[in-house]
Amino acid sequence: MSTRTRYSEANPTRTEPTHAQGIRARPLVDSATSASASRTPSLRVNPLIDPSATSLVKGQWLGGPERDISNDLQVPFLPLHPPLGPTFLDTEACLCRREPNPATSVDHAESLLWRCSGNQTVADVDVTTGKWFKPINKDEDTQIVLQLPLNDGSNPPLREHPMRWDSESSSLIPGTEGLSVWDQACTGENRTSFSTSYYRAAAQRDNAEVPVDAAPCWRPGAVPLRLQDVNEWQTKGCLPGFLCQNNTVNSLPQFCPPFAECQMARLGYHACALDGVNIGMGPFEPIICQAGKYCPPGGMTTFNCPAGHYCQPGAAVPTPCAVGSLCPEGSSYERYLIPLGVLIALDVLIIIGIIMLRFRNRLSSSAQVHQGSLSKKSESTVVGLARAVTRRKYKRISDEGERLHDADHEMSAVGSPVPPGRGDVWVGFQEALSMPAQSYRNGDGIMSPQGEDLERSLPPQIRAFVDSMRKATHDSEIGLSFGYSQLAFQPKGSSRPILQDITGSIRNGRLTAVMGGSGAGKSTFVNVLMGKIEYTHGRVDVNGVQGKLAQYKKLIGYVPQDDIVLPELTVRENIMHSALVRLPRTWTSLEIENHVSAVIDCLELSHVRNSLVGSVGKPVISGGQRKRVSIGMELAAAPMAIFLDEPTSGLDATAASSIMRTLKAIASLGISVITIIHQPRLEIFEMLDDLILLANGQQLYEGPESDVQPFFEKFGYAFPKHANYGDVVTDIITGNGRAYKKSGDISKDALIANWIACRKQSKLRLSSASVLAVGNLGASKAPLDRLLKKRGASRLKQFTLCLSRAFLQQYRNLSTFWFEVGLATLAGFLLGLAENAKNGVLFMGLYHPPYEILSTASDFKSAPEMALLTAIAIGLVSAAPGVRVFSEEMLLHRREAEAGHSRLAYFLAKSLSIVPRMTMACMHFTVPLWLLSTPIMGWGLGFVANLFYFYCIFGLASAISMVVKREDAPLFATMIALIVGILSGAAPPLSSVRNWKMEWLWRMSPGVWLAEIYFGQLVTPLGYVYDIQSAAGMTGFRLDGLWKNMGLLIAIGTIYRILAFVGLLWGTKMRI
Questions:
Q1: What is the pLDDT of residue 433?
Q2: Which of 401, 421, 741, 1005 has the fewest other C-beta atoms within 10 Å?
Q3: Quick one: average pLDDT of 652-665?
Q4: Beta strands 309-310; 319-320: pairing state
Q5: What long-range pairs does 912-916 form, CB within 8 A, spacing at least 24?
Q6: Residue 920 has pLDDT above 50, yes or no
Q7: Are 295 and 302 in contact (CB under 8 A)?
Q8: Burial letters for 234-256: b for 16+ Cβ neighbours within 10 Å, e otherwise?
Q9: What span, in angstroms and rounded, lies between the C-alpha atoms of 781 and 324?
Q10: Number of H helices, E strands in the chain
Q11: What is the DSSP letter of 740?
């Protein structure tokens, strides 16, 4: 090319452009585009180009040999020989300069054209290649044109009419057919940033300096690695989520070894950045799109994320935010405000509702007190004053203390009439003690006129109770008679029986006490009569009818030794629930209400009917009143027989006497009362009608209480005067009667032998009749089968009653509810705070090929670890409350189930009643967690997934509470919930567990399914920028199956509840 004019002596960088389209000198990419070579870190840069190549003087640059350059490294910013005349780089990094038409002389007026050639790798020696353009204006003098500065833009190419060199005609012809892929891309349109770097490099080489602006990598001595070839670039272009502003077919993407600072940033899960702006390690290295911005397909530009959207790192399109979420312009995450507002509104509404409800209850209580005061004023002033004085101050206290007004003595209900026959002191059922013991009915059960007059003389409360009992039994006889012969019980696997050879009877309308020492078989004997235990030998009749005793449980009441009542309910509510469940289903609501009121009045509980029962640790009513409530729960069911286990246990002497008088009165009304009693005081002992004395599982005596002293005196025992006969009898039957018998055998075996001998005598045979002789009294009069069919509410009715009671319990125990909610809020807040620094970026994987080498350190653990921490937090928050759902009421449930309550109705009602509380706890946990951690997983999905996991943990805790002791269950459940959370597949990873052939064990934990939901929802949306399949393979989680996993969580929680129900049925035997 001898005709080519060499580079001008004028410094092109000092010449201003003379045309509107002139090239403006500025950095490769300015601060707005964040890809400038001049915006790289202020480090010394030694480019790849050998500095010795720049030591040539102007006009003496050397080019390389002509060869195949398709695979050479592209260096479009590096001037390979001195440029002459106007020169620039176009939008596709083609080098455009004024060249003479190869077919004409350089001196020809129209010989200078624009030639744009691509793929600048080595010195260009072929002047015919590239895309040719005519200048817009005609040149007057070619020599002047070649001496113009490089950045002169006064006569740009006419880009609308490109030409190419035709070798056959040796001329330029219109069109671009046959050009190389690099030349085909040339546009002839100046790109300022490219050209500026080229000019600076040319000036640096012109001054014999290192061409820093032409360096392909910023790291000194770094060798770039091409990421895409031209074919792949044309096929795929810049991958989604990346900014490739400087990349074209003539400046293909490259990877450059990073600086140490950049390498540290990448190892710390961050992109290389300068002043908070992501940068590459070379001008042609793709850059991951900045957080808070998005890079549309093509990767040529970047935009701020618009308001109402958020853009995570690598966003190709902005992600719309949910309605009501906080997403200002430039957001990289979404803050959910609607759930926060809903949660605050719910809390405020709950608080307002509680305040209003309590205010209404207080007004109602005040109105009742005021109405009672008005009723009292209607009495005569003199009589009222006399009664007030008598009641409050000047009442005579008897020596025995029978009328002592202590905490257990009950005043009449406010405004209720004073019952006749007992003066002005109302003592409930004890009014019935004035009724003579003899019966006023003939053989057909018809009441005599004397009996009718006597019943009319009873107080109206007792008459109402008797009428209710008769209505419930459909008969005038309201008690059950038991007869038993040769009764025995021997547990399986035991070598000796607990009961043996028990023969006798229990008549209705009698107060019968079962006495004996420890291990005598008292409880076993009573349990056999109640049908709780099936006897192994002998025969038992009920009202003369033989059959399974368990079928009569709806007609029998049982009062345990401990006062098993619900402390959150009032006296009336405890008794009313028992009545609604156990009374005949044909009764109307008014009839049930009247019956319950009669029971409460007769038990002297009127003035505390609306008082909470309270617990033993925090009592509200006295111990005697609690015992009366326990008895009232059985009387509310209109039983025909009541069994009591040591009813005086834990009571003071006065309260114990009051309880026993009440039982005596109940028996006098016709109900069979059988009680286990231990060391009664003399007053109580004399109240008893009949005694059954046991030792070593056998009878020592059975008969009237009045005959027990003569019976033992017959065998040489002497009862001291003024002694407590109950204590004497207890000493004798426990083998400690030497003080009462100076000589002879006092062992229990001797006492048993004495009774066996006496039982054979005809005189005692009448009082201890055989089974067949006892029961016929009511065999034809009490159609028990007809009664049993009508007793008890339906399962659906019991379900609604138990559900209503469970909700009421939760309302009365609001402190526990707020504690659970507060703990859930704290757990969600702390967990969200721990994840807050990640700004919602909970997954970082390998970029899709061929950009994987640009990846930062992979973060496959954040998503599973968030699920792990969530599972652990939910377990810690809900395990103990889940245990309390059933464990606090196991004794009460057992009592109710033995009385005929539906176990299924109770279980379903309790399980359903905790759903609102569980939902509120989940909301208080999820809202702060999502508000602070800002994951890309939607709040709704997160709430549902967390709620289902709450469901699982509550079910697991319920199952544990059935088989573990009450005091150990909370800690045990918390530990199991912690283990279940750890088995979520985060650590150790599920992929490792799969290699151990133990995945089945992890899959049994609900934590795995929760973690898989989290992983899928946090990772799948990023599949356009990351290779998520490799991440799934390395962690072991599946990416799909969202609703399948949700269903499995529900299934696991349901299985836990099924196990809990099985434990409810047989948990007593399974308890650890």
A1: 67
A2: 421
A3: 86
A4: antiparallel
A5: 912/803, 913/803, 913/806, 913/807, 913/810, 914/806, 914/881, 914/882, 914/885, 914/954
A6: yes
A7: yes
A8: eeebbbbbbbbbbbbbbbbbbbb
A9: 74
A10: 33, 26
A11: G
